[in-house]
Amino acid sequence: MGNKLVEEIYQEIRRRNSSVGTGSIPHSDELYKFVQSSMGIDPDLAKTIIQVLVNSHRVFSMEVTAEDKTHDVPPIEGYVSANLTDIRKLKNYFQNELMIEYEKQFNKRQMTHQIVKDIFPMMRSLNNTALGMVANKAIMLEEFEKLMEKRFEEYTEEWKEKRLDIELSHSNLNEQAALSQKAAEEKKQQAAHPARKTKMVRAVDSAKYDEFASRSRNYPLQRIIKIYGTNFFLQVNLRKYQFSYIEKLVKDGQLNKRSDLLMLKEMIQTVKSHAEQDAGLAGHEGELYALEKTVNHAIYFTGKPS
Length: 306
Fold this sequence. Notes:
mainly alpha, two-stranded antiparallel ribbon, 2 strands, 69% helix, globular
């Protein structure tokens, strides 16, 4: 089972790499969500599989965005198959994108290597910006190309296969995959019995909920989110039918990260799918519809280039 999942994720990365464009290097945050929804692979298992692929030299991992706790910026990695043809093709594309982004920001045209020399001292301040992300990709793709040319024997298919066998033998992928599959089946069974699920969900982490409710009255919003996480914050308020309150947070820009908005959109779909079994939702449908409309609008604009 583990081998099959490794191959599926590798092929998904390779498929995206082969389509040259801004999305041709999958980002960790988006990829984990995708494989969870489409393949039933939970994020922890996906991280283990990615590490197996990196250790066996089938995939390269690069830092796209560095973690910045001060500004609530999570770390984001990008993944590229260790295939020299793909690497060179993507390198050429992102070096060209780097020249375009640099010209936009500084109003002058420079060659890639001069740009890297100019911006390298300020890379920290460019973290999580369009220029910073494309620069990281252009720089690392060239480094990967050099590494593959210098240590070519470690990137042959024969070497990769042998190393993959070793990595798989040292991992507990089959056990993790079995647990992940069991959890997915339990989730499916709960979905088939919504009334039972609602009761279970509302009983989960009651102590944590009581603590959350108490702190929410005294702590500012951003501190509450930092302590409990956006996921838990949204779950609690959706369960309390606080749709207008959440809509106001989105409109005010207090919930503005694309990943959070996409997560909220999924949660709204879950609420709607259980509408018939949730008697408490009656009378709140208009607020829920307004929230969904606001979230979709916000997602659209976070996806537009600046």
